[in-house]
Amino acid sequence: MSETVLLPGTASLGVMGGGQLGRMFVHAAQALGYRSVVLDPDADSPAGLVAHQHIRADYLDEAALAELAAQCGAITTEFENVPAQALARLAERRVVAPAGAAVAICQDRADEKAHFKASGVACAPYAEITTAADLAAVSDDLLPGILKTARMGYDGKGQMRVRSRAELVAAWDELKNVRCVLEQMLPLALELSVISARNAAGEIVQFPVQQNLHIDGILALTQVPAPAVGPELAAEALASAARIAASMNYVGVLCVEFFVLQDGRLIVNEMAPRPHNSGHYTMDACDVSQFDLQVRAMAGLPLRQPRLHSPCVMLNLLGDLWFGTDGAERSPVWDQVLALPCTHLHLYGKASARPGRKMGHLNISAATAAEAAATARAAAALLGLPTQW
Ligand code: ATP
Ligand code: MG
Description:
Elements: E1 12-16, H1 20-31, E2 35-39, E3 53-55, H2 62-71, E4 74-77, H3 84-91, E5 95-96, H4 100-107, H5 109-118, E6 126-129, H6 132-136, E7 145-149, E8 159-162, H7 165-174, E9 180-184, E10 188-198, E11 204-206, E12 210-215, E13 218-224, H8 231-247, E14 252-261, E15 266-272, H9 282-285, H10 290-299, E16 312-318, H11 334-338, E17 343-347, E18 358-365, H12 369-383
Parallel strand pairs: 1-2, 1-4, 2-3, 4-5
Antiparallel strand pairs: 6-9, 7-8, 7-9, 10-11, 10-12, 10-14, 12-13, 13-16, 14-15, 16-18, 17-18
Helix pairs in contact: 1-10, 3-4, 4-5
The chain binds adenosine-5'-triphosphate and magnesium ion (MG).
Residues 124, 146, 148, 153-157, 159, 183, 185-186, 188, 191, 214, 217, 257, 269-270 line the site of adenosine-5'-triphosphate (ATP).
């Protein structure tokens, strides 16, 4: 089944989830002439609004899954918390890439870390906490640390920083005593990520390493080429990401996030079984985007090594930008931003802005990295985003 080739212009491709990642996937699929189908319960989902067909139903709705499988030659996902049973059900009839088993590993921080270890890639020292006895048995070495829910965390949600045992106990209560991992707080020098695409034949292609800045646990900015990453470190990150993908027999686009510690060591943080916010620059700075590769991998088309043709800075556009200092809702000054050279604005079509909500992103490409950074700082200043990076 995985050897199936779905030629452009002849088939429908489906996606579980209707968020912005699904929307950009739909755009890429449509550019190649595929029909697109989105399954998402939300009537106004960003992807549902642009797909040929929107099946508006719960992810576990049997009739909806049957309809999706009937319509589509292959199905992918745009979020890792899609129920594993839903992917298993679809896989009975169609190519599902990535496979439910790989998505399941990414859904659970403890399983994910076990997989990193098995792949021979170092992750932060951690302990799994399921019971009060686990909590009591935690080693002092893990403090100060970060307590993270094993499942359903994103954008820094479901995480609490703890300095002492007393804070740890209080934090676990606050997280309702669900299964967690406690990670040692590491001295970070910087953060980077790698986007890989792998097909059923085991061929893998990768974008260059990108450097990421998070503010308040949410990605704020991505730069490529990564300004503070030397060739050896970049090669290590690419090789580690490839090993992690291969050892899951992964098919699709995979993002692996890393920390670089102050002593220079590379540590894997987490992974996402889909295109990633830190790969959005590929839409305007590479000859093939992460969404193009998602389409190619699931359709069984050849993967070609993508080429970064322009240095780029990506600024994330959160809902905060839609509110003035007086708290009143407003539109950001897009006309002024678009007057700057080589700015590519992507808005996700979300009807209402909320602080912290991902509304869009702005890619700034240029002939040189210095030019891209200077223009990005000018855009950030116009938008009221941080310019010190
Ligand atoms: P997302 O889904 O947006 O990637 P998340 O909610 O899954 O985020 P993590 O990636 O685990 O969260 O953590 C968010 C950020 O918190 C990291 O990018 C990093 O800046 C910081 N962080 C997480 N774990 C550690 C750690 N062990 N030591 C130091 N900083 C950390
Ligand atoms: Mg993360």
